[in-house]
Amino acid sequence: MTICTIKTTPFSDQKPGTSGLRKSVPAFQQPHYLENFVQSIFDSLDGCEGATLVLGGDGRYYNREAIQIILKMAAANGIGCILVGCGGIFSTPAASCVIRQYNALGGIILSASHNPGGPNGDFGVKYNVSNGGPAPEKVTDAIYNRTKAITEYKILEAADINLDRPGSFKMGTMEVEVMDSVVPYVELMQTLFDFDKIKDLLSSGKFRMCMDSLHAVTGPYAHALFEKYLGAPVGTVQNGTPLEDFGGGHPDPNLVYAHDLVEVMFGDNAPDFGAASDGDGDRNMILGRNFFVTPSDSLAVLTANATLVPGYKDGLAGVARSMPTSEAPDRVAAKLGIDCYETPTGWKFFGNLLDAGKATLCGEESFGTGSNHIREKDGLWAVVFWLNILAVKGTSVEEIVRDHWQEYGRNFYSRHDYEEVPSDPANELMELLRSQLQNMPGKSYGNYEVAYSDDFSYTDPIDGSVSQKQGIRIGFTDGSRIIFRLSGTGTKGATLRLYVESYEPDASKHHVETQEALSPLIQLAEEIAHIKKFTGRDKPTVIT
Ligand code: G6P
Ligand code: ZN
């Protein structure tokens, strides 16, 4: 087998975003495009000679081809061993779990998360480091710098590996271990949750759940977890076979895209509990019968009830949330006497807090929740966590959340997305807001008085690194907030996100519909930012 050195020239658009390099499939299929990026990863790694890496993806279109290319490049670059998912499948949380378990140097995860797949859909490549978490900015910056200077890459001339059954193979001098990652993942869940108690609940015949894997990566994990180990009837998991195009759907677990599940959970004779996860399995949505739990409330509820679950029975070191996530978890943390950290959007910002033992649970408004068991957010983990709480409490999802609001007050919360708007006006909107920030504090808009306004900047408490321009926050004296941010994960034009939050301590007002409760703030956001003018849209594309 010969190692070929192929001449190449840089692509100018390989800067990793919030979560790796994400582009359309045709972009990745350009000659040398994937190879340049992968070689830049290898060139930026210290100690890749002889190292172990994890490789797999969410099963989307181009997953298998990309895996064969990366295996040959890894062999040519002196990697010692690659653990590759059977069928090319590795959910993001399972990859994080296996990187940690095998003390791997890192992992290459092929996914565009919740973006649609297929020949004209999206693809992505993300590098995770040895703690199992997304590469921090200093690593992604090094990779990006390398992509701008690359002149050649190495690839082994070799036959493809059969990915469809577990086994050990040799590729040049490199070991290739094709593994079924469902097993280590389920074993990790067993160390955290009370499987017996959950099994009693799910097999009692009195409690029904519905899990929607949206034809994406969690299918095999969810079938095993719920139907095999936790005693739920076969059929509990719907859309549980990963498809290359996710059945034509948008594998994002929210009220808009998980419509099959929403119909079931808000229909007649709805089950007691519903959940969905995204393309690569790190996001989750939690529903009760006719009831939606916001991701921010979900993090707050998990924090408040963590000691009911074996893995967290000794309490939490702290909790962390991204800046646009509602302040509901802060209220729980204050009561528990633990720290609540506010980080920029992106799971990578939780890594240092988790490694340093400062936070145990983390969460984001974008349907991500997780803990120190791995270094990624974990969709199925959140589902099993909820089941464990439900099994202990014996009440409904809605009762748990309403009781929670009663105790802590309710943070009404909603996100309005303006997807695929032209980039220039979206940037102008942000610039205009930025230019007004200094003069806002003390200013009144109707009943609202601005307490603070800034472009969020974060100094990592562990390594002191500073991340600036992470979103515009306007906070009011009554605890309400309006936040504007441009998405870092879109692949077409810009996506403007408006996050709106208000705090209501009075339980007699907790039943108000969310959009109604937030409507004065939504109007105020329009008044301040002229969203309609800049986006050319009179309403958001998605409201969650
Ligand atoms: C990915 C990241 C998350 C992040 C989300 C939203 O899913 O893993 O940590 O919250 O993207 O990013 P965006 O920049 O699109 O708002
Ligand atoms: Zn994801």
Automatic annotation (TrEMBL):
Catalytic activity: alpha-D-glucose 1-phosphate = alpha-D-glucose 6-phosphate
Entry's Gene Ontology cellular component terms: cytosol
Stored SUPFAM superfamilies: Phosphoglucomutase, C-terminal domain, Phosphoglucomutase, first 3 domains
Entry keyword S-adenosyl-L-methionine: no
Ranges for domain Alpha-D-phosphohexomutase alpha/beta/alpha: 14-153, 184-287, 296-408
EC annotation from Swiss-Prot or TrEMBL: 5.4.2.2
Cofactor: Mg(2+)
Keyword line: Carbohydrate metabolism, Glucose metabolism, Isomerase, Magnesium, Metal-binding, Phosphoprotein
Keyword Translocase part of the UniProt annotation: no
GO biological process, one term: glucose metabolic process
Matching InterPro entries: A-D-PHexomutase_a/b/a-I, A-D-PHexomutase_a/b/a-I/II/III, A-D-PHexomutase_a/b/a-II, A-D-PHexomutase_a/b/a-III, A-D-PHexomutase_C_sf, A-D-PHexomutase_CS, Alpha-D-phosphohexomutase_SF, PGM
CDD domains: PGM1
Listed Pfam families: PGM1_C_vert_fung, PGM_PMM_I, PGM_PMM_II, PGM_PMM_III
Family: Belongs to the phosphohexose mutase family.
Protein name: phosphoglucomutase (alpha-D-glucose-1,6-bisphosphate-dependent)
